[in-house]
Design brief:
Elements lengths: L5 H5 L4 H7 L6 E3 L12 H10 L7 E5 L2 E2 L6 E7 L5 E7 L1 H9 L3 E4 L7 H14 L2 E9 L14 E8 L2 E7 L23 E5 L4 E4 L4 E6 L4 E9 L3 H11 L4 H4 L8 H20 L3 H12 L22 E4 L8 E3 L2 E6 L2 E6 L3 H9 L3 E2 H7 L6 H13 L3 E3 L6
Antiparallel strand pairs: 1-11, 2-3, 2-6, 4-5, 6-7, 7-13, 8-11, 8-13, 9-10, 9-12, 14-18, 14-19, 15-16, 16-17
Helix pairs in contact: 11-12
Length: 405
């Protein structure tokens, strides 16, 4: 199953119901069906990742009963020659030792597996476009009955996708509203004997947990593999950091604070700062402006389709192109031009390019022929192809990876 949108990931739960009743508010267990998430990370693919990649701690680690197993018991670092005669340390997996640890009850943890596996990457990209936030996916695999982690909470929202096997979960809610990571040492643990919810996630099930909800998971003496999709939502604290940076453009905020001034002068200075700050806060839709700027700064994940993407004849009619931006474009057309910001740059094209840009913005991928057809009322085919070459040159579009032409 391909997860091109949030609805497919949450099925059979309706995405509208989830966003209204659960997102950011409460846990949600969604019963799926066997094999729903199987294509995301089959066991064979996990084996290939572990064998092909030189993974090191902390990205690859083993956990057992809440403690990290010593890295040197399953990873060996060997010196290897680098450029210019330098020597670099290369991690090498000790597969027999690793397997023995797992057989004895350790949990294998692999962070950022979305960078190593294409189907998981596609899920992350889909959710980034929905939530306009950074998404990272981690993998957890266990075999016995020992827990990998103790009772804990995460500083981001998570979707837990049960890929294979089963796992027993207990959820406890929050003990401090909307905690931040720096609050970790201040937050009281809940009573481990009184969970709000306890149930077994079966193959194909999904569990959603908002930030700050305590939870713990136990394997059931059988192979189990799940993915934790972390959505790192921004908070009011992030908004204030951004606003503070914007205020550096206001003269009053660049002045020295009046340490040696009179009490009246100090009060006047603070009053002026307050007026300037509130004027900035109330002058426009601050939250919309904040999200627009953050979207424009988001960097795309690398996309390559060599050798085809580097050839001069890549734009055949059936070549598939996709927009290479982590967020949907905010297209604004006026005065004969279309403007948008993305990938840390501001872009401007003739307004006739709008149909092509809209078509790319609305679809995961489309052929060159479809794009020529979408703009035929404004542009001839030669002009569309010239526009597409320019978009390719700037990295705004890429040839769909993994396809041949």
């Amino acid at each position: 199953m391909v997860f091109d949108d949030l609805a497919q990931l949450l099925a059979p739960c309706l995405s509208e119901d989830f966003l209204t009743a659960a997102w950011g508010k409460s846990y949600r267990h969604i019963h799926g069906w066997p094999g729903k998430f199987a294509r995301l990370l089959p066991w064979d693919e996990l084996n290939e990742i572990l064998m092909r990649h030189r993974l090191d701690y902390p990205r690859l680690r083993l956990m057992q009963d809440g403690r990290r197993l010593p890295t040197n018991t399953y990873l060996r670092h060997a010196a290897s020659g680098g450029g210019g005669g330098s020597r670099v340390s290369i991690p090498r997996l000790q597969h027999v030792a690793l397997t023995n640890h797992l057989r004895d009850g350790a949990t294998l943890v692999l962070d950022a597996v979305d960078e190593l596996c294409q189907p998981i990457r596609e899920v992350a990209e889909t959710l980034e476009r929905v939530f306009h936030e950074r998404v990272q996916v981690n993998c957890y695999a266990g075999w016995r009955t020992q827990r990998g982690f103790d009772l804990h909470w995460d500083d981001h929202d998570v979707f837990i996708l049960q890929v294979a096997g089963r796992k027993r979960w207990s959820v406890y809610g929050m003990t401090k509203p909307s905690p931040l990571r720096r609050d970790d040492h201040e937050i009281q643990k809940p009573d481990a004997e009184q969970p709000l919810w306890t149930e077994t996630l079966e193959d194909g099930d999904l569990l959603y947990l908002p930030r700050g909800w305590w939870h713990v998971a136990l394997p059931l003496d059988e192979p189990t593999l799940h993915l934790t999709v972390g959505v790192h939502n921004r908070t009011g604290v992030d908004l204030l950091h951004w606003l503070a940076d914007r205020m550096s453009g206001v003269e009053a905020f660049r002045h020295d604070l009046p340490l040696l001034a009179t009490e009246w002068e100090r009060a006047e200075h603070l009053a002026r700062l307050r007026r300037e700050l509130l004027a900035e806060w109330d002058a426009h839709d601050l939250l919309e402006l904040y999200y627009a700027e953050q979207d424009a700064k988001a960097e795309p994940r690398p996309l390559l389709n060599l050798p085809h993407s580097a050839t001069q004849d890549a734009l055949q009619d059936d070549a598939l192109l996709r927009l290479n931006t982590p967020r949907p474009l905010r297209l604004a057309a006026a005065d004969g031009v279309v403007r948008f910001s993305c990938n840390k740059k501001h872009w401007k094209f003739a307004a006739d390019a709008l149909p092509v840009l809209r078509h790319l913005n609305e679809r995961r991928a489309c052929t060159v022929g479809e794009l020529c057809l979408s703009a035929q009322a404004q542009l001839d085919e030669q002009t569309v192809r010239a526009l597409l070459r320019e978009l390719l040159q700037h990295g705004l579009v890429v040839l769909q990876p993994g396809l041949k032409y």
